[in-house]
Amino acid sequence: MSINEDAYDVVVVGSGGGLVGAYVAASRGLRTLVIEKTDRVGGTTAYSGAGLWFPGSAPLRRAGVDGVGDARTYLRSVVDDSSREPLQDAYLRAGAQLIDELEQNEWFQSFVHGPVPEYYAEVPGFSPAGHTIFPPPVTVAELGEQARLVRNCLPTERWGHDEGPVLSGGRALIGRALKAFLETGNGSLRLNTALESLVVEDGRVVGVEAVSDGERVTIRARRGVILAAGGFERNHELREKYQPFPRASEWTHGAPGNTGDALQAGIAIGAATDLLDAAWYTPGLVWPDGLPLFHTGTRGGVWVNAAGERFINETRPYDQAGSEIVRLHTTSGVSHIPAHWVFDQRQLDRDSFGGPAEQPVRPEWFESGALKKADTLEELAELIDVPLEALRKTIEEFNGYAKTGVDEKFHRGETPWDQIAHHVLGYPGLPELNYAAPPTPDWPNPLLLPIDTPPYYVATILPADIGTKGGLKTDEHARVLRPDGSPIGGLYASGNTMAAMSGRVYPGAGTPIGSSTAFSYLAVLDIAGATD
Fold it and tell me: What local confidence, expressed as pLDDT, does residue 241 receive?
């Protein structure tokens, strides 16, 4: 039996970046309901560093970072798809406007610039300082009872780490958005409520059918429904249908509820789709529990494939590295899954593994087999079942690059991203950057230390992701489109529920969450009639 609920002006499906859009709607006096499939708010955004790639926004102006012009040139160059230019222009316009509006609310004040280099250094308009901003941390005491509703970070969900009294990164953004949303007096939240279908009357979406705490409900939306429920990364059947590497569903860092419900609901009423074969890939380092964790900033050693050959700049931006693993695995005829991260005692002594450099490697790394140790290269090659002579040649070649400081094959250590990855692995609160990595005695490039000090070690790299990036096609107002290009009345999409405005590339830190918040904002502007 379906129970009819009171009508709202706006229903937002998903509580990640769409929660910011929900606040914008509620702050305009629109009665707004957020439905969330799980028992916590935040989605994949809560796992993130909360970067927002928003050129021209107030925090960047305060930091003296250039405006939108170069960023538009950069975005045009890396995406190289004229059909997405209207979405790009809408995104660039919305980001700055959204932050100006948010910072008028006490819960959103004082976003800060985190100088993270953009990911394509060779492209016109590239900025070594980047255009990424972050929300400041917020304490549990400040948020009060709302703090317990925010999804934990991924390490806590996997290993039960203590979150402590402060929410940072994505948890800070979600906590602040939830507090601001509820304080408007026009916002309501319904957890454990899963979208099943969209209600359509006379060709217009007027509500949703959902299952809430086991009970089927119909919730009407007078003005519009915004689908902001993430991608379909947790749905193996959909990944098998659309994607080149469906097993990524086992290794994804997407939130547990991201099974494509919103995507399928849109398709069911005739929405067009795009980029369903794409994802925001990342390398994942396999931990002792057998699952990968987002990995960036490889400082030493090499990655080799099943042929014992090095195949990539291991410090390349994470989406590029993850995508390259998948591409080579599916097209080269050589297995790249798993990839083997080979390094030596010198590297272990310098940077440790799975913990601070001054601490020894925890026993569970070896006990689980996530990290293996060998006294000789012969033994190492046998451990990972690769040809000894190929592995030896790979390491000899790499050691030659270490002597000159120049990686002639893959150019590791030559870009601002490579060099910042040597210093820091997290974004918020970065200090003033010096892109020249600190020297290492006797070796000209600290990212190219030779592999010549036994014993040797090997860990496993898998292609993980932070979500799929294909979804429902939208226009510059975030309206969901039919195959003929006409909008479906009353239906909007943002974030990973929509096909990415950046196409198949990842321009810079904060593009996915920036898209989620910016297009949710644009949806509300259209709903409220404030698009001019």
Answer: 97
Mean pLDDT along residues 23-31? 98
Tokens of 321: 């590295």
The residue whose two tokens read 């990424």 is 132
Could you tell me which residues come within 8 angstroms of residue 248 by beta carbon, excluding any fewer than 6 positions away? 233, 239, 279, 281, 326, 463, 464, 465
Task: Reply yes or no: is the peptide bond before residue 455 cis, omega within 30 of 0.
Answer: yes
In this model, does residue 422 exceed pLDDT 80? no
Instruction: Determine how many CB atoms are found less than 10 A away from the CB of residue 272.
Output: 18
pTM: 0.94
Give me the phi and psi of 144, to 5 degrees please. Answer: 70, -140
| Nearest-angstrom CA–CA distance, 102 and 419 | 33
Phi-psi region at 400: left, alpha or beta (left = phi > 0; alpha = psi -120 to 50): alpha
Report the distance separating Cα 447 and Cα 184, nearest Å: 50
Element (H, E) at 372: strand 371-374
Q: Where is 199: in which H helix or E strand?
A: strand 193-201
Report the candidate in 360, 368, 373, 386 with the shortest Cα–Cα distance to residue 303: 386
**23 vs 192: CA distance, rounded Å:** 20
Q: Estimate the crossing angle of helix 18-27 against helix 85-102, to 10 degrees.
A: 60
Is residue 438 pLDDT above 70, yes or no? no
Work out the average pLDDT over 419-438: 45
CA 470/CA 6 separation, integer angstroms? 33
Q: Which CATH superfamily is domain 3-277+469-527 in?
A: FAD/NAD(P)-binding domain (3.50.50.60)
Task: Report whether pLDDT(435) > 70.
Answer: no
CA distances from 362 to 65, 158, 233, 342, 455 (A): 42, 17, 31, 18, 17
Structure-block tokens of residue 335 = 């297995």
| Cβ neighbours for 131, distance < 8 A, ≥ 6 positions apart | 53, 54, 55, 56, 57, 60, 65, 71, 118, 508
Q: What is the CA angle 141-146-152, rounded to 5?
A: 90
- Provide the β-strand partners of residue 480: 474
CA atoms 431, 435, 438, 440: torsion sign: positive
Domain ranges of the chain: 3-277+469-527, 282-464
Is the previous residue joined to 507 through a cis bond, with omega within 30 degrees of 0? Answer: no
For residue 436, give every residue at least 6 positions away whose Cβ sits within 8 Å of its Cβ, in sequence order, or none.
419
Q: Are strands 456-468 and 215-227 parallel, antiparallel or unpaired?
A: unpaired
- Secondary-structure class of domain 282-464 per CATH: alpha beta
